[in-house]
Amino acid sequence: MTAVLALRARSARPRTLRLGVDALAYAVLIAGALLMVGPFAWMVSTSLKLPADQFGHALIPPHPTIENYLSLWKIIPFDGLLWNSLKVAAISTVGQLLTCSMGAFVFAIVRFPGRQVLFVALLVTLMIPAQMAAIPQFVIFKFLGLYGTQAPLYLPGFLGGAFGCFLLRQYFLTIPIELAEAARMDGASLLTIWWRIYLPLARPALAALAIFAFLSSWNDLFSALIYLPSDLEQTTLPVGLALMQQQYAAQWTVMMAAVLVSIAPILIAFSLAQRHFIEGMALSGLK
Amino acid sequence: MPPHGLRPQGRDRAWLLLLLAPTLLGLLLGALGSVVATAGLSLLHWDLLTPPGWAGLENYADLAGDRGFLKALGNTLAFSALYVPLTVAISLGIALLLNRRVTWVGLFRALYFLPVITSPTAVGLIWSWIFAQDQGLLNGIVTALGLDPVRWLGPRMVLVSVVIVNVWGAVGEGMIVFLAGLQAVPRDYYEAARIDGARPRHQLLYITLPLMVPSLFFQIVLSTIHAFQAFDYIYILTRTGTGGSTLPTVVYSIYRTGFGFFRMGDAAAQSLTLAAMILVLTLGYFRLQKRWGMPA
Predict the structure, then answer these.
(1) Looking at this predicted complex, what is its ipTM?
(2) Considering only alpha carbons, which residue of chain B is nearest residue A6?
(3) B239 beta partners
(4) Of A8, A26, A69, A172, most Cβ neighbours within 10 A?
């Protein structure tokens, strides 16, 4: 169908020229796509090779083996790392969904003095580099005695956030205010309206924010490096991989197996819900 | 905007405060408060173990004479100068190609997007294997062509290699933003231009690109902010055995000074310098955009 439309739209141009330009466009796109996928293919290939074969540059492993995946669990507490990452990402995602939607709900439907000023202040914080907030945050967590625990990785998720708040507020504004007014006539409190009406109606926006929040937490190296730089029992996957890099420097076959296992959950989720991932990111335009 | 929303009454006032509490706390602790706190910390000497001492502007004065920091500053600027134009140009190029209603748009989009969702730490490890000096893939190709192996992460090439990986990881995101912008251009414009005899080249120059200026501008600002804050790939690709980096950037320097050596005052001064640079550049972009008279 799209192909037919495309043909019709371009039929004004000479056919040979069009074919030439199209062929060139495809060639460039395919070359680019190969560059994008290449490193991942190389990772899979290396992870299936015997250590003795790792320096041969064959894409197809000459003696395929899953030995690297098995030894992974022997040299590093990989289950723990996966579990820690999952736990931290899940808790901070829940925190983001709850607190951002609370703030967004208030900014979208409640009239109160200072709303405008507060909202602008919130948007201004989008410009503040994360590394800057990290320094005073570190001092606070250190004095709360939470240095060396996982709390500093997920607690900030419960403090709302400009990005999530803005995203959800835009969505909440599209929900007719009459719904809230009618509920209020029936005696519903603000809390009820938020929980029973706005949250269920905002599922697509909540899904976009959930994907975004989970990914940022799952992939977050900086915070984990600051708060849990060396404790393999407590820390998350990115730090685990960075520590492995130091210890098993030239054992690329095992390293690549570790990389694959650590990105597999995200890759699987992406292949299942690709559209949501991309639309969520497009909505944000910010990372 | 007409006044929109409910006025809280009675018990709802308490609910309002409760609903707003996390956001207010976040503003205070996480965001706006952090600027004030960082500014305050930058006036101290403090290692978190002994009581803090007053430093005044000493930390800033020290930065100006700190060779390591000046080098980091240079690296951040050089990195950004390469990263921003490359990322913006390549992602715009991909978006323009995909906008030609090619088949399998969805597949291409997904493939270009892969590095955006996968962990930079993990993918950085793949790249460090590809760049490996002895038997890495890239040097395998180079030697097969009869050339000498290159030290991709050595002092001469490290900037280029790190830029390549960062651009590779970022074009997917820019592509999505540009694609959304391109698809918002009304089809009638092209229709009208074609009737007037405009060539595809002219349509690109006189319709598409001018209409893309707002997203282009947005993407340049965003890439600049990303460039100044780049850390993950740089950490994985350039970290040395002693914890330093072969391409230390300002963010890397903040990380080491603050969280490696616990010199909080110095780290705060560095991060305030970084934030000021980002602010000045962003304002500069806005001025430029105004001067060109482009619609924002």
Answers:
(1) 0.90
(2) B101
(3) B245
(4) A172
